[in-house]
Amino acid sequence: MPASQTSPPSPTTHLISVVLPCYNEEAVLARTHDRIARALRPVEGVRYEVIYVDDGSADATWNLIRTFTRESPMVRAVRFSRNFGHQAACLGGLKEARGDAVVVIDADLQDPPEIIPEMVARWRQGWHVVSARRTARHGETAFKNLSAFAFYRLLGRISDHPVAFDTGDFRLLDREVVDLLTGLTDRELFLRGAVSWAGFPETAIEYQRDSRAAGESKYTLPKMVALSRSAFLTSGSVLPLRLPLWTGTASLAGALAMALTRRGRANALPLALFGLESLAVGTVGEYLHAVLRQVQGRPAYVVSERIRSTIPGAVLASVEEVA
Fold first, then answer.
1. Across 114-123, 252-261, 263-272, least confident range
2. Per residue in 156-210, pLDDT tens?
């Protein structure tokens, strides 16, 4: 064919991976899948893949996911051998993703998948991280709203690097960011903190978080405490490690105060000082526990099943460890 008749080259097509960590989401997952499918409307130069990560669900979540893989060529799935936690499920999805950029979104429909195309548009403008910032949290208790507000502000105060306020794991990450995160050796990786620590160019899209479409929140109080513990231990701040020094200084000051005050006021003071010292020792203990988990070298999760294809039976059934 003459050169003058050669068709112009087609624009580069980018692959966007959408990762959905799931844990006992059978009540809402069908609606989630439908909204995801409608939200990922075709855009010139962009194609999508959807990766479901079943974090050890005990209900029909995995059966629904298997159905999705047979109905759509864009869907892949991974199943953990047990419940390893939300952060592990997010990390597992990032490692499975093949896209030039990856979006992480929960499966409970509190975060709207309809803004994913806008995230992709921001990414195509050159941003490495596109976060979704909550301006309101509908359906949450006053305690949950207050604790979330305080969590981000306190983390921002003690962290040695900037922290994005009111931003969860719902965000788009460029392939360069994904490769960095999945290459880290942290055994208790706090993804939000790791993204902030990396310092890539970041922008945000504001939205109002909806109530859960069905079911109950999987972030119980113990899990919220565990997430907060991981966040503060991996925030990169030396502040917690300095608590024993401050406690010792306070104890000396308290002893001096005891010598100067009336005898009746001194009875409660030793107990208060003991409580402060115990808190400081407990903080150091948390760090030692984190160090122990790090040196043990265990994987963050274990994959028991993986569906790579829409062909029935194309399942990897053997247990495989993934660090």
1. 263-272
2. 555 655 666 567 789 999 999 999 999 988 777 778 878 888 889 999 999 887 6
Q: How confident is the model at residue 98 (pLDDT cuts 50, 70, 90)?
A: very high
DSSP 211: P
Rounded to whole angstroms, what are the CA distances from 31 to 60, 66, 263, 267?
14, 15, 68, 61
Listed by start position, the domains of the chain span 13-236+298-322, 240-296
Q: Whose structure tokens read 């490769």?
A: 179
Cβ atoms < 10 Å from Cβ of 123:
22
Residue 278 token pair? 């115990």
Strands of 25-95 (E only): list them.
46-54, 75-80
Strands, DSSP E only, in the chain?
Answer: 14-22, 46-54, 75-80, 101-104, 129-137, 167-174, 202-209, 301-307, 315-316, 320-322
The answer to whether domain 13-236+298-322 has CATH 3.90.550.10 is yes
Over residues 79-97, the pLDDT tens digits come to: 999 999 999 999 999 999 9
Residue with tokens 């079911």: 215
Q: Is 98 exposed, middle or buried, given 0-12, 13-18 or 19+ CB atoms closer than 10 A?
A: exposed
Angle at 304 between CA 316 and CA 15, to 5 degrees: 65
Closest to 75 in 3D by CA, of 51, 103, 106, 105:
51
Residue where the block lists tokens 């499966």: 107
